[in-house]
């Protein structure tokens, strides 16, 4: 039995309404756990003052430099003691979940047991970087909790100027649009850079994210320094039975308005069945006995729209791989930036492919570590030094897929033009 | 004296295979198509003819262990022992027969977990920590989200929007909640208040000076002690100086406002990914239920629901109808603060004779 509850008139308002209430959950914890009682007290105080009242600090587990988020209450009595003493120390452990955030119930219950014993019992599934956040441990219990999680096979996530915990979509496990093994790639990358993750020594944070197709369910272009997105080089595949089934249900208006009309590059046309182009770069499928869809795969940008609408009838191709975009980040300091294309296509099937991929990741990480200023993200560094210099540094050739359009101003010295033309010719010859 | 034994961590990120539902493992990389038999249920079919139904339900994200255990009970009794979470904190419970779907849906709903969040619905809000755990928060996240989702639960449970709607909430301008169709983000309106007694002891001054995006911070001496000063005419009230220097308090009970941004899109489908744009600000940080914020979010959503065409995301809809009609349809005031004057911002001006009347 825990100590008596604080009055929480503001938080009580958040128990009303049909959506699951985190306050109701905290109150359940408060029946057995003094830390949760005082957390409710502190949070109610924030609701009343409309200000946050936590400060950071330095705390970790043996062997690691990051992964624990220390929080100490700033609400003190006149004598300097904590006003909500049992939540005076309320640290978070970031723990990396299995790729794709899959669990069996036995594991989830065991995680609950550990956190009920050593922490507040409050668990966020999951934080914005993709960690399980075990919220609320005293300084003394951080190590104990970590040791038990670690014995289960779980490891701490990243924090501070370090490689951060990554995230990958459900991908190959359940999605027909998956173009590579997201979980395997995720797994290999984190294990390759564990030292960067656990011992913060980079200029600033560095994030990888893995999406199986350009729908980018992991928001990797926007949210990661190094986005790996599945794609394909050959033609969109078609399935006539499913295409006819779709058309019978949805009809011509939806086919024209929702599929053909929304293709961003006008790569899809409707044709009379039997009159489709016989070109190696054309995909076609009859939607009825009289009409067919014709897709010009040379104009297709792999946006996924038609495949999303006509799932199964249209499918991603077979020559699959990944597109890599670098430099996504949020607001600080130059404003939010999206990642931009660095590798238009890289196959990711054989062990050798994976080696090439990991080598590139290593070169990017090394270049970032050596050249970024303190507190500068990859995207800001590229903006500062220019993409061409970055590419030279990571030994990647330029490609017109990297740009929206060529330069629109003359302000650069082009004295090396002839050499660059020779390089372009050499690239063409090597392709 | 014997040293206490120090346990060394076992470093490494494990393989996820043992956590996969058997149907996921058996058909790994071999799926053919999917459909949605009802909102909240995904039905996937593999090339071998295997089928799996995944039931998706909303959670409160910040879960007490009792809630997690309750979900485990549901997974064990009505599912097949495996589950996963989406990045919007929805749980997905796979089952290998269609007959198990209805009882599982009923059990989730009976226990207060709304089933939905698939397809063209409003999914759960991606959000940050806020007053519950962040050291620099301007508002709470869980509370804003709880009050918002209370009002949007029917839109979560039904697929009645033109396309999927992704929401986010962020407790400061750093925007950890991310880009979204509609994003609720704290907007500071006052420059930091500096506690000059503490700056010298706590802050590394050159670091703080370097953090400012508009070079408004200068080293100075106050009462004989090193401190920092802010050129308030230059200051854009972003709060970037506050994390490295807590004595530069940016949060203010009345000065913290809430802004609303729309049309962020991460997917590459149709248009390229794009950032969200400012459409409302100055809303009060009105805990515990933020009614003014929720009213604006709902107004935007209803305008989109009524006028958007099938498959148009918020950004696609606005691209078609244009900003003047967006402001007309939502009734939101267009102000000078929405005209971008940050570097490169001229690219956001209309340099054409494309004008809508």
Helix-strand blueprint:
The complex is a heterodimer of chains A (431) and B (357).
Chain A: H1 9-12, H2 22-30, H3 34-49, E1 54-55, E2 68-69, E3 72-73, E4 91-95, E5 102-104, H4 105-118, E6 122-125, E7 132-137, H5 139-151, E8 167-168, H6 182-192, H7 194-198, E9 208-211, H8 220-223, E10 226-232, E11 237-238, H9 240-260, E12 268-272, E13 282-286, E14 291-296, H10 305-309, E15 314-315, E16 320-326, E17 340-346, H11 351-371, H12 378-385, H13 387-393, H14 417-430
Parallel strand pairs in A: 8-9, 9-10
Antiparallel strand pairs in A: 1-3, 2-4, 4-7, 6-7, 10-16, 11-15, 12-14, 13-14, 16-17
Chain B: H1 22-26, E1 31-38, E2 41-46, E3 51-57, E4 62-64, H2 65-78, E5 82-85, E6 91-95, H3 101-110, E7 126-127, H4 142-157, E8 167-170, E9 182-188, E10 193-194, H5 196-202, H6 205-211, E11 217-222, E12 225-230, E13 248-249, E14 256-262, E15 277-284, H7 291-307, H8 314-321, H9 323-330
Helix pairs in contact in B: 2-3, 4-7
Q: How many helices of chain A does DSSP assign?
A: 14
Radius of gyration of chain A: 26 Å
Give the largest interface pair and sizes.
A-B, 126 and 114 residues
Rg over C-alpha atoms of chain B, rounded to the nearest angstrom = 24 Å
Quaternary? heterodimer
Distance between the ends of chain A: 72 Å
CATH superfamily of the largest domain in chain B: Sulfite Reductase Hemoprotein, domain 1
CATH topology of the largest domain in chain A: Sulfite Reductase Hemoprotein, domain 1
Physical arrangement of strands within the biggest beta sheet of chain A? 8-9-10-16-17
The shape of chain B is globular
- Structure summary, number of beta strands of chain A: 17
Mean pLDDT of chain B: 96
